[in-house]
Amino acid sequence: MQIDFSSFDQLLEGVQILNKELVYEYINQSASDQAKKPIKDLIGKKYLEAHPGIANSLFYSHLNECLETRKERVVILEFKSKEGNPVFYDLCIRPFSQGLIILSVDITKQKLFELELLELNKRFEEELLERTKNMVVQLEKELLINEKTM
User: Fold this and answer.
1) Is the pTM of this model over 0.85?
2) 122 and 80 in a common domain
3) Cβ-count burial of 106 within 10 angstroms (0-12 exposed, 13-18 middle, 19+ buried)?
């Protein structure tokens, strides 16, 4: 029985459908854009064939675990683009009768903003600590001067 997945075609979220042998049955345009591979190059291919080098990745272990346990996995994972830049995805891997469905949202902008905020906060805390130390040293000097003049 062939299932019609065309309802997923207009979603902004990436949708990938893999059978129990981890062969692509369906991928929408959003997921194709995220993978930076044309849909026609993925349909009918095994996941490992379509994504060389992914076999030892955390993501691939999540796929296999979900397939074996039939339990959903929701994770945020970092990947590297071809240029070496970090790319972050919010992923939901769900088992269903024919295999797995993978829902993905590119959260790179939000994650990079979050990392930048963490770095700014760290620098702020370091600067605040340094200024506080300097103020304590200055106050101690003033106390010594005041004690001597009394």
Assistant:
1) no
2) no
3) middle
